[in-house]
Specification:
By secondary structure, this protein is an alpha+beta fold. It has a single domain, classed as Gcn5-related N-acetyltransferase (GNAT) (Aminopeptidase, 3-Layer(aba) Sandwich), CATH 3.40.630. 34% of the residues lie in helices and 31% in strands. It is built from 5 helices and 7 strands; from the N terminus they run βααβββαβαββα. A 7-stranded mixed beta sheet has the order 1-2-3-4-5-7-6, with helices on both faces. A hairpin with a 2-residue loop joins strand 2 and strand 3. The longest helix has 13 residues. It starts with a strand and ends with a helix.
């Protein structure tokens, strides 16, 4: 059975094992520096950095921000040797059951790149749809350019522009 075990301490043993997965799964411009990540884990209540555990085995990480009226799914990665075993599917099923309401996430545009196309289709099969194609993700780093991404969500929302601004303000502009 899938468990999401929240990490709240920067010295957590799961976190030490997950940092290489975090750094290896996301390019530098799509992740924050590790020291900043550790500070956020300890100090920001709405950020949930979770170890994905299946039947006692550490399988990956899942990070989301709980804004009350919606949730922003920031990072999701399964160890390479455990991929294609439906673990990611189990996590998304768990999330759909246990994180009700609007859930938003960012994806690379499904234009040209086969991996990006497969990722968008994966989320579509799991109940998400593209809500915004003109989204610019602010940089996690002070001196780098922003990324052009798409916003996907499990429902439409008239409040999407306000939610996007909240993500930009609390997730990307937070300087902890």
């Amino acid at each position: 059975m899938i468990q999401l075990i929240r990490i709240v301490d920067s010295d957590d043993l799961y976190l030490k094992r997950l940092i290489p997965l975090y750094e290896g799964s996301f390019p530098l411009d799509e992740r924050r520096p590790v020291e900043q990540l550790k500070r956020l884990i300890k100090s920001v209540e709405i950020m949930h950095f979770n170890a994905v555990v299946l039947d006692g085995e550490l399988c990956g990480l899942f990070v989301f921000w709980d804004f009350g009226t919606f949730r922003y799914l920031e990072h999701f990665a399964i160890y390479p040797h455990l991929r294609n075993k439906k673990i990611g599917q189990q996590v998304l099923d768990y999330v759909a059951k246990n994180l009700p309401g609007l859930r938003l996430l960012e994806v690379e545009p499904a234009v040209g790149d086969e991996v990006a196309k497969r990722r968008v289709e994966y989320y579509r099969r799991n109940g998400y749809k593209v809500l915004e194609k003109d989204y610019i993700q602010p940089s996690y780093h002070k001196h780098e350019d922003a990324c052009s991404l798409w916003i996907m969500g499990n429902n439409d929302s008239d409040s999407l522009p306000q939610y996007i601004e909240r993500i930009k303000e609390d997730v990307y502009r937070r300087n902890v």
